[in-house]
Amino acid sequence: MAGTLPQHGSPKSGYSANNAAAVPAITQTDSRDKWSKKMDFLLSVIGFAVDLGNVWRFPYICYQNGGGAFLIPYILMAVFGGVPLFYMELALGQFHRTGAISIWKHICPIFKGIGYAICVIALYVSFYYNTIIAWALFYFYSSFSSILPWTNCDNVWNTPDCTNYFGVDNVTWTNSSRSPAEEFYTRNVLELHKASGLRDVGGVRWQLMLCLFLIFTIVYFSLWKGVRTSGKVVWVTATLPYIVLFILLIRGATLPGAWRGVVFYLKPQWDKLLETSVWVDAAAQIFFSLGPGFGVLLALSSYNPFTNNCYRDAIVTSLVNCLTSFVSGFVIFTVLGYMAEMRKVEVEDVAKDKGPSLLFITYPEAIANMMGSTFFAIIFFVMMITLGLDSTFGGLEAIITAVLDEYPDYFSHRRELFVLCLVVICFLGSLSTLTNGGAYVVKLLEEFGVGCSIIAVGFLEAIAVSWFYGIKRFSNDVQAMLGQAPGLFWRVCWVAISPAFLAYIIVSSLLKAPPLTLFDYKYPDWSITVGYIIGFSSFMWIPIYMVYKLVWTPGSLKQRLAVCLRPERTIPDIHADTLNMATMSQKDMNTSVCL
């Protein structure tokens, strides 16, 4: 894909000082943290973008939407929607060197509520996402056994419906049959049978609470000193999953029946391309996979040198992310083919699980019946934990950077204390997901706490930058950093295609909202209403701030609008004294350029 996209930017730009002649001379103050090495930044971005969803969501969506044929809409949506938005956010953060809240005074002050909405959404994500990592930690601890506990039906949590078909002849699998792995997950890890639903979620599981406490302890000591510590931690958490994926891929390819899974995964169903839902799923998958709109890319790139080649970074990290998703499909489906071979059923019957169930039921079940099952279980759940931690680092860093940059007088010298308070809030907010019915809460937060809210935020961000801030002004910013303005392809994507891409996802999601279910539990109507309230509770800060800004700005309505839409065009302090103002005309400096 990198070969087909327009190239620009100095080949020497980045962390080297050799490109001083290509761009205006830049100096930096020592007040803001900086990445120690370029790889610290790249691994942090890759670690955030490559998460658990790459392992469970992409393979499922791929086979569900036409197998190999799905790659066509996926690549198109990536090239024209996901990658341009990814590049835009990296460039914004690097140029303005500030977080998701205070950046809006440099872009379009009336949209500052977007920054607050991003922080609220990041909090909601932390309330449920770390619980999933805690489940993986519980499995990791349980894997230190010569016989994995989800191998047989002889445990205290098993029911008469438990059916073990591995190594057993003449086993009849019925609709009421439950595998040992499924009962371990639902009855021992989650204890869902002790909850009747969202009305009665039961008590807190102390084992999961301990796991979550350990997760947040790791998170705190990785983030408390800023990018100086998190940039070192990601050398382990971002690279280890690739080692494990490679090991699991080799093991999966050698299993009997693996080829059946691969054929099922990639066999093209060309008629699927005529279905609108396939294109919606492709657009949503690439958006949530790359992660523009979450404020993380703004935060991470704000610690870069001003002349870093963010264009190249966007292409490289996007490619790594998409290829990881594709390879993960082989890791998953070689094992599903093996399970179908063992059960003597079709791959489609085995691959009905999706989401976390794929990682906590289907894959562990296959691992438990391999040679060296303990080893493969341990490394698999280590991979899951590290994949999750990277994304948590990014999500919380988005909040930390945004708040510290917006309120430097209060928090600039109290980062450790602020991070501690934030981690405690996230831990307390996660308690409802640690109950017997916590999985129901996780599903609700995942669907409504993020969902359409973050897509709407990304849509408004793209509109604010391209239409109100002005594509010409933004292109000048990129030229100041890279020595060359973005090409026509990028400008057209930013102005028209990418916003249309996001609007398409929003409208399609609202018009065709499927019923929300988890296992055999159908979410009641009142819980869907609660979900919409949760979603609106983050998005509402955008109109609230708009009204606040208009009311408190002096002057007539026309004057107020002019002030609220015009950026405070002060070049960030770190390079205000040395940036060659000739790169931007005075007209660009003082007026809003709209297309």
UniProtKB/TrEMBL annotation:
Q: Determine if 4Fe-4S is one of this entry's keywords.
A: no
The UniProt transmembrane annotation reads 41-59, 71-92, 113-141, 204-223, 235-259, 279-303, 315-340, 366-389, 417-442, 448-468, 488-506, 526-548
InterPro entries (UniProt xref): Na/ntran_symport, SNS_sf
Keyword Transmembrane helix assigned to the entry: answer is yes
Instruction: Give membrane topology per the record.
Output: Multi-pass membrane protein
Q: Where in the cell is it found?
A: Membrane
Keywords, alphabetical? Membrane, Symport, Transmembrane, Transmembrane helix, Transport
What span is annotated as the signal peptide, if there is one? none
Q: Name one Pfam family in it.
A: SNF
Please state the protein's primary subcellular location.
membrane
Q: Which family does it belong to?
A: Belongs to the sodium:neurotransmitter symporter (SNF) (TC 2.A.22) family.
- NCBIfam families per UniProt: Na_transp
Protein name, as recorded: Transporter
The organism named in the record is Ilyodon furcidens
Q: What is the lineage of its organism?
A: Eukaryota, Metazoa, Chordata, Craniata, Vertebrata
